[in-house]
Amino acid sequence: MKDVLIQYMKRFSDLSETELKKLTVDVPVATFKKGTILLHQGDVPDKCYFVLKGCIRQYAVDDDGNETTFNFYTEEQSVTIFNLHAVEKAAKYSLSCLEDCTLVVGDLATEQGNYDMHPVLEKMTRKMIEEDFGSMRDDFASFMSSTPEKRYRVLLEKRPDLIKRVPQYQLASYLGITPESLSRIKKRSEANHLRIVD
Q1: Where do the domains of the chain lie, and which CATH numbers do they carry?
Q2: Are 105 and 61 in contact (CB under 8 A)?
Q3: Per DSSP, which regions of 14-166 are E strands?
Q4: Fewer Cβ close by (within 10 Å): the C or N end of the chain?
Q5: CB 81 within 8 A of CB 51
Q6: Closest by alpha carbon to 163, among 150, 153, 149, 178?
Q7: How far is it, in rounded angstroms, from Cα 187 to Cα 49?
Q8: How much is the pLDDT for 185?
């Protein structure tokens, strides 16, 4: 299963596969059952994750009990905690396993010690975070300027697996629309696809 991590790390490093394997020998990997809450909203996070297998949902619940889904993390994606150095360290969201998950589990308390032991790891992690930030910024800008229909088309193009892996009401929340609107958009999209095929 660590092969997934090694292939991902290759994108951010010039190290050989043998060197990367040595680097990942002591990397902790754990499995979590579907429904496991990895982080509760309001708790101070002490772990970060990399998805080897499965799907994690990032969401928040407001004072009225309404849920908003912010993201889904699937294979070869890191779930990075960015508020470690913030004044308010409590998480503004929860992380939940939508499927049985196999994850690399990083301990934020020992992160610097690992970097001191393996300086190449710090450089690699920085590149990974920069890519994540760039991707999040671009996705957010696109999201804000898009119609719901376009958001759905982009989802189909970039992350089609989510359509079958995620409950429709969570997908609708992620797209910023109601489940009914999503259902109508899906029907129109399927009808357009059929016309193109014909």
Answers
A1: 2-119 (2.60.120.10)
A2: no
A3: 29-32, 37-39, 47-53, 56-61, 67-73, 78-79, 94-97, 101-107
A4: C
A5: no
A6: 153
A7: 36
A8: 92
